[in-house]
Amino acid sequence: MSGNVRLLDDTLAAAKAEGRSALIAYLPAGFPTVDGGIEAVKAALDGGADVVEVGLPHSDPVLDGPVIQTADDIALRGGVKIADVMRTVREAHAATGKPILVMTYWNPIDRYGVERFTAELAEAGGAGCILPDLPVQESALWREHAEKHGLATVFVVAPSSKDERLAEITAAGSGFVYAASLMGVTGTRESVGAQAEDLVRRTRATTDLPVCVGLGVSNAAQAAEVAGFADGVIVGSAFVKRMLDAPDDAAGVEAVRALAGDLAKGVRRQA
Fold first, then answer.
1. Which of 9, 39, 50, 53 is catalytic?
2. pLDDT mean values, one per 10 residues, the chain (271 residues)
3. Residue tagged active-site, from 9, 50, 64, 197
4. Is 64 an active-site residue?
């Protein structure tokens, strides 16, 4: 099953070889419906995203801002299950051949069972997991099973992370490092700024893994700014907001495709 994480590694390396950042989109599974969510993920990839993170909706998403919380709430009210998340990964990967990760809080995996979750994600063609609230020092069991099934383990670093802590986190991770550009929750912002650039510089000093920046990027100009210093640009809330604002599901999917195309131009036009 090791091909899954290798696809992620190769995709990020290919973007670097082109002299650009990778575009990584985030969309929650089950939003607006399971089928609609699958179409949105495929549209993001078809539109120009290199990688997609599929969110596992959670009732207490501590790192997510109001836009993603709203989408998660719609998905949970619709009855989304982990099986639907796996189906989203399977169908989007099968349709596009591009790497798909799952972004999830630890509690749902812990309840579901680590071995079962990693085995099913690998079988679905998933490339790995982003685990924003799993402390590295408590991650041995997860990493053992993820490695066994050829899955990347992506940890999140923040501007508040001290250098020693950064080294500890990056040594345990694989695939890439998710650099949260700001303290606080996800959401679109006017500026992504110097804090993110400093965090990327400090993180790179500890690892050869690509460093991808998320939290706050919403348009091509911001994508270009972040692409000037990061290996990947992660966009979530802006995609979700396009879908929330759309008059119907089909229009939402087209809005996702259009935004992906716009952002894909941005990461190729480094500021």
1. 53
2. 80 96 98 98 98 93 81 95 98 97 96 97 98 95 97 95 95 96 53 80 97 90 93 95 96 98 91 46
3. 64
4. yes
